[in-house]
What we know:
Structural class: mainly alpha
Amino acid sequence: xxxxxxxxxxxxxxxxxxxxxxxxxxxxxNTVMTILVRLWNKGMLERHAAGRAYAYRPVASREEWAAxxxxxxxxxxxxxxxxxxxxxxxxxxxxxxxLRRVLDARKKR
Length: 109
């Protein structure tokens, strides 16, 4: 997903393969294709035909995806308020200030 988020356009499996393969981490092209298809099947990617292959891009930004994961974790908690308290205790004062701004702006809507 990082390669797709870091890319600024649609990426074919070959593009992704080139972006993530290093001398220390060699992945087979078929592995990359399989992962992209699985991510598309899960609804994390959209795709369109690009010649004989498909090109992919994320349906959500890295930040939107992280927020959704945070929401999912909160939903799975037995005690949402306690979970939120632990989260708020773990953020920096700067992040807490930003969170207050977001919450205040939400109240005004």
